[in-house]
# Entry
Amino acid sequence: MNEGGFAVYKNIQTYFQEHRQELLDDIQSLIRIPSVTAPPQEDAPFGPCCAKVLDEAVHLAKKFGLSAHILEHKVAYADLNKLPPQLDILVHLDVVPPGDGWTITQPFVPLSKDGKLYGRGASDDKGPAAAALYAMRAVKELGIPMKYNTRLILGADEETGSRDMDCYYRHFSEAPCSFSPDGEYPVINLEKGGIYTSYSGAWEGDSPLPCVLSVDGGTVGNAIPGKAQAVTMGLDWETAVKIARETEILTGIAFTLARQGEQILIQAQGQSAHASTPWEGRSAITGLLQLLQALPFAPCPGLTTLHGLSSLFPHGEFYGQGAGISQSDEKSGPLTLTSNVIHYTPNSITGRVDCRVPLCATEENTLHVLRRNMAKWGLHLPDHCSMLPPHYVPEDSPFVQTLLRCYEQVMDEPGRCLAIGGGTYAHFLKNGVAFGASKLGADYCIHGPNEYLVEEEILKTAQLFALTIVELCGK
# Structure
């Protein structure tokens, strides 16, 4: 950075020292709106609170002298100026449901305490959204000369399908550069692709005793299930208890058994985790399937299918070896494969598969192989199932190098590129990356109780975004 650049950055630092509390207050105003996706209403396709939060963001943008508009009540955008486009910043203002277990404050009652700001959406993604808005405000109010426009795109459906961005890109083309502050620092330039699909199977034949009557576990395809249960008929109680205790030691899953007449209810307790990082959890489904394999059931078609499922998705194995699709590359790391939902009856089975694929994956070496190997056990993927390709922006691109340079200047630490198994708004953009706003490895309780942001970190993020705007769009 030259001498003029250092002077600009010093002005940005001073600006945010002066506007610190104002930024935090406006983040709180966004948190107070419980913008969880709800059934559509007139002029509110994602529910009234999602429409309200877009209105509030546009109100703030206009108050700061920015041009701002709402499209179809689904997505908003704010422009720094009327110059040619160069940078889009994509954020979202919808949040996941509040959930239980909050102890510091209520989910939509923001609270500043000990340098942290608590509330649902504080880190995901209302804090970063406000930081980006204030970065544009700072550049405008400081009178920094611009050569190109920066546009802030504010979505309201990221958590439930990204229909907001489908709407936006029907109206506009993507800018030459785009980033989304909905990940971790420094720069996420690679997002794995994926296969996110259901499976099913059905068969004829009786289930002689002892047998499995049902298996149920998981609720969503992208989360390692912490709970699952099975109902069996005709098992010897002492034998079942003995094998369950032995399997607990092998799997790390806790099993609770209860007699129900001639039936035994088996409940499995593991540890939930996001499917992009399955090693952080312990799947109750795969642990339960391992127990069912060990119990002395009579042979039948359904039992064979359960054994096949267990061989395809062995407990504690996340990398596709059992399904024959294990692969890895240097840039993106290994493929991950998990089965996170199951519903079994004596004559049918349904479930969901989550597979995160590296750059080296193709439909031929991944999806087609998975389909064939599951079919060997009578488990079928839908005909329309396809693979979402990985997304990659080269590290040596001028755009990424600019982001890394700005990061190092503001955060005073080395910048580097990261690959993730999850996905952001940037995944479908040719020159889009994730850029913050979470500190790498930090746990901000995102999607959990007591979600928070660190106040000094969000101030740094706002400074970083302002400097980035200057570097990418300034004269």
